[in-house]
Structures are given as structure tokens and as C-alpha cells.
């Protein structure tokens, strides 16, 4: 189960097929399928910044507590930015920390990859600033939902799973992850990587530091995704979602000066 955000469409494994937005497939997932919650175990569940925002809401934790308790941060040598994964439980099946006997215990706030599965969605940023999207279907042996007869398309499945709101945040993030300088191999200092983690994944601490005047605000770029373009700390967006969009613009201006 994974949401990929890539530049070029990757070479696909045999059980992964690309589907058009209006292509019909049959699938259903419900407590009656014998594989119920099988996909919530032994997985690498990558978390986007917006996933963490929603997990923060689901758990009532601060962003720092969430990162400490439930999130693994990794950055292999040669990788431009760190990756963030949800912790799995050491129960012999590497179960997701949020799976229970009745299913997902944080269902309304489950991450985008959980909503997307058994599809995958890739967003590629174009040179004119537009986004090219493609979907794949992932047919894993343990997933018996494909035997069900409910019809979907990629577009309708996205809508059914409430993905459109998640996709707004994840697509906006490509302005950083797929920036031209990143595509050309730009590497960042440890301090810049800290700002990446802080402004995207640790929103409460980010807000606190801005309010304390510990971070400069070098005139974030106005962005159509955000209604806020604060120039002063006192104008910080009042809620986490607006702050996340604001933080993306702020980070972009910090990482890609000139
Ligand atoms: S967050 Fe919920 S849906 Fe996603 S893997 Fe964990 S239990 Fe399953
Ligand atoms: S394995 Fe497939 S059908 Fe089974 S619970 Fe997961 S998504 Fe649903």
C-alpha cells in the first residue's frame, strides 16, 4: 500500500497495471471479505504531511508527540528528502498500530495510501506548473476484493474514498519534491532538512517557533492553494490546514532562494 509521487511514470511490476481515469474495474472492501484488514499488516505505509495532520486530529496528540510515538523518519544516503512511515506493532505480523478487530480505528482520518489502495496514484509536476496524474491498480494475492462485483473508475474511487481533499495537499507538495533544482540533483544541508521536517511534519512546533520569532519569514510567495499570504508572524494562518499550505510556500522560499 503506497502513494507514489514521482516525476516519470515508473516501470511497473507484473501485478500493477496502469488504468485510465474512466476505466471500469470491479472491487469492494468491507468487513465481510475474508481478507479484511490483511492489507493493514506487513506494509510500509508512507505518510505525507497532510496524513500527519489528520493523524494528529485522530489521536489528539501534538505534532511532536505524533512524530515521537508513531512515525519513523528515514533518509538514505543519496535521497534528497527524508521519508516518513507509520510505525508497525511488533506482534509477529507487523500490524499497523491503528488496526483493531473491527478494522481501522482511525478510519475517518486514515492516510491517503490507505484510501487509495488497491489503486496507486502518481503526480508528476509539469514545466508549466500543471500536474500530470496517473493511476494504477495493484492486484496483490491477499486482496480478495477484486472478486466483488461493485464497479468503480479511478475517478469515482477517489471521490468515494474522500481523496480529493488529500490530493490538493499532496499535489501542492510536488512544487518542492519535484522542483527543477531537485530534479537536477540538488542536495540540502542538515539545517535545511530540519526545516523540511519542521514546516511540513511538525506543525505545532513550526507555529510555536514562528510566533517566538525564531524563524524568519522571507515573504512567502502567494499561492492559489492558500488564502493566506502573511508577511508577519501575527498573521499566521489560524488552523493547521492553512498553516500547512503556508508552510509549503515558506519552505519553498527558504530552500530555493533566487
Ligand atoms: S491506518 Fe487504518 S487503514 Fe491504514 S493501515 Fe492502519 S489500520 Fe489499516
Ligand atoms: S486486502 Fe483488499 S479486500 Fe481485503 S481488506 Fe484489504 S483492501 Fe479490502
Number of helices: 9
Strand content: 15-25%
C-alpha-based Rg, rounded? 19 Å
Low-confidence stretches: 2-7, 219-231
Find the count of extended strands (DSSP E, 2+ residues): 11
Descriptive account of the structure:
The chain is 34% helix and 15% strand. It is an alpha+beta fold and 258 residues long. It folds into two domains: 16-180, no CATH class; 188-255, no CATH class. Helix 5 (163-177) runs parallel beside helix 9 (240-255) and helix 7 (190-201) packs across helix 8. It is globular. The protein has a three-stranded antiparallel beta sheet with strand order 1-10-9. It has a two-stranded antiparallel ribbon with strand order 2-11. It has a two-stranded antiparallel ribbon with strand order 3-4. Strand 5 (88-89) and strand 6 form a beta hairpin. Bound molecules: iron/sulfur cluster (2 copies). One iron/sulfur cluster (SF4) binds next to loops.
